[in-house]
Design brief:
Layout lengths: L4 E3 L6 E3 L13 H13 L6 E2 L6 E2 L2 E4 L4 E4 H9 L8 E3 L5 H8 L14 E3 L4 E3 L1 H5 L7 E3 H5 L1
Antiparallel strand pairs: 1-2, 3-4, 5-6, 5-7, 8-9, 8-10
């Protein structure tokens, strides 16, 4: 294998490393990202997590399964006070059960740039994108619905 390629341990495909060495353009590993999302929850009994709203790190926090984000107790009332958030599933980290960890790992992948659900596959760039990416970064590119691309 050439020195400028990386073999993906999951899909076994070779990926070329850009000349500048920047790996941020590498394909997203959604399984690894979901595990990283769950990591703060698994460590919540010994550490603290960063609030999506105020960016403070606190032990007394909750996780919103709809927003896929952490909220400290101070900001949680703000989150829950928004009318559209009334029906969202929020759970204090101290109350997490095994099945709650599994539900986080099964959540749909989100765009790292816009924090929105990935909905499309850009056929030109060979990558998954959210609606915002589709109308900005990938305008004019051929796109298909993610479910169709998976088939």
């Amino acid at each position: 294998m050439p020195r400028d390629t990386i073999l993906c341990p999951e899909c076994r495909r070779n990926f070329t490393i850009p000349g500048n060495g920047d790996l941020n353009t590498s394909p997203t590993n959604f399984r690894l990202n979901s595990l990283l999302d769950a990591l703060p929850i698994t460590e919540c009994k010994t550490g603290a997590v960063k609030c999506e709203n105020c960016d403070k790190t606190r032990q007394q926090s909750a996780y919103c399964f709809t927003c896929c984000s952490f909220w400290c107790d101070d900001c949680l009332s703000f989150h829950n006070g928004i009318k559209t958030n009334k029906e969202q599933h929020v759970l204090a980290l101290k109350d997490f059960r095994d099945e709650d960890f599994e539900n986080i790992l099964k959540q749909p992948p989100f765009c790292a740039k816009h924090k929105k659900k990935l909905k499309f596959f850009c056929q030109l760039c060979k990558t998954t994108i959210c609606y915002s990416c589709a109308v900005t970064d990938h305008e004019g590119h051929a796109k298909i619905v993610l479910e169709d691309a998976a088939k």
